[in-house]
Amino acid sequence: MDIIHRIKYSMMGNIAHLLKHCYWICCCILLLGVQGLANYLGGEFKPREDWDWADILGEGLAQILVFSWFLLILSIRSAGRVTNLFALGLIGIMISTQQDLLDEFIELPDGVLWDSWLESFPVGLMIFTAAVYFWREEQSQINRFMAKRELAFRSDKRSRSALGLSDYSGFYDQLSSYMKRYPEQWQQSSIAFIQVDPFSNIVREYSPGMVDHLLSSVSELLLLGIRKQDLACHYQDGCFAIFLEGLQGEQAKHRVEKLSHAISAFPVDLGGSDRIEGTLGGRTIAFSCSDISGFDLDALLQEARKALVVQSLEVPQFGSENASS
Questions:
Q1: Contact 101/38 with Cβ under 8 angstroms?
Q2: Measured distance CA(186)–CA(184) in Å, rounded
Q3: Which residue, 147, 175, 190, sits at the end of a domain?
Q4: Any residues with CB less than 8 A from the CB of 285 and at least 6 apart, and which?
Q5: Which sequence ranges are marked TM in the entry (predicted)?
Q6: Calpha distance 214→317 (Å, rounded)
Q7: Which residue segment(s) compose the domain that 236 sits in?
Q8: pLDDT averaged per 10 residues in sequence order, the chain, 325 residues
């Protein structure tokens, strides 16, 4: 029953998305219908013995597949130039393949030329090629944005968190693998931690949904601030861990402090009817991987957590301005 419900909701979601492109679907059905009507009114049906069933099967299957592409692309894309080009190009291809199919059943007079134009001139393919070109540009921009998430999602089934970051288990496994595969680079790198403060107050005062929204916002800031080769994870509660490849000492400390300052400068809006806003602080600490005795990753993570707990740092009280008002 669970599988049936999943299929049902998946189909409902796809149908709801297709309805947003109903004008393209209506346009497709209308043009194909007009084409079929023009062939019916302008020609004569061939005798059954003249039908080539191999051509009918192949051309009919091609038409079904192109129409499936049409529906699949519309079901996963938002409205825009690239989507419009894909839809228009596929409609053009369907018109060509349908004319090939109709020619197997209907014979038009010798003086009619438009059927040959519909079959032979690749307007649909030209438009579809333009769509692929602009989709490539669109995808390259998305890839540049998503590049920093690549490590968080590469070969790790446990990193599909709502925050867009690897969880602790995935982070640990990836660091362990990196440490074994690239021991020299590991020795030249650092692991840093940022603790969002005062996180305990936020958890007490606001709903889980608001807290998740806060963590998601901080995650986005970290992804924007780290380099492509770095790796960030949601370590636990309000703590985030960052692997800084090729950075040690003051360089690593400077990098993580810049990230902490970015979080502190970020105006937090947790939503709700009161539109509560506050200011975040952060405690930071960075460890050089070369300081880990015997590549003991567990010891480093435990030491970092203790250091964050005992580190004293004044942070602004979240929501204090609202309390006083």
A1: no
A2: 5
A3: 147
A4: 192, 193, 304, 307, 308, 311
A5: 21-41, 53-72, 79-97, 117-135
A6: 16
A7: 154-324
A8: 59 72 88 88 82 85 90 84 90 89 82 78 89 88 62 45 68 82 84 79 76 81 82 82 86 85 72 49 72 64 68 41 36
